[in-house]
Every structure is written in C-alpha cells, then in structure tokens.
Design a protein that fits this description.
Length: 83
C-alpha cells in the first residue's frame, strides 16, 4: 500500500505580492499543489488562525471542492480554538 502525502504552508493566504487572496490559494492548491487524485493526505499549515482577520481563511468545504479530499475533523471545534 502506498500513501501519497502533500504538505503546504499557505502563509495565511499572503502571496509574494503581499496580498491575502484565499481564492488564489485555492486555485493554486487545485491546479499545482494537490490536483484531484494526486494525494491521499493533505496537510496545510497557516491555512487558518485562531483570530480575525485570518479565521476561516480557507474553509474546509472549499479545500474539499478544490482537491476532492475529505476533511478529517468535520466538527469545527476540532479544527480551531475559540475566536
């Protein structure tokens, strides 16, 4: 059995141009980092923070739609601390 894993630090959605653009992150995720069928496991660092303005930056549903993978912690309380 083979497990294909991908890890990516999205730096809270901030690109090299300094803009925070969650849609761009999702597009790059889907097209370059983890296209459908390319990985069994995806670990995203700094995809969310526990405080605004970054809380909810990349909703799990959007990542699921972009990659075809399913979030391992469906309950929000397991994903982040109180805001």
């Amino acid at each position: 059995m083979e497990l294909r894993a991908v890890s990516w630090n999205v730096h809270r959605g901030r690109g090299v141009d300094g803009r925070v653009d969650p849609d761009r992150v999702l597009r790059v995720l889907a097209e370059e980092v983890c296209p459908r069928g390319s990985a069994d496991l995806l670990a995203l660092q700094e995809a969310d923070a526990e405080a605004p303005p970054f809380a909810g930056l990349l909703p799990p549903e959007a990542v699921e739609a972009a990659t075809g993978l399913v979030h391992a912690h469906p309950e929000e309380g397991l994903r982040r601390g109180p805001e």
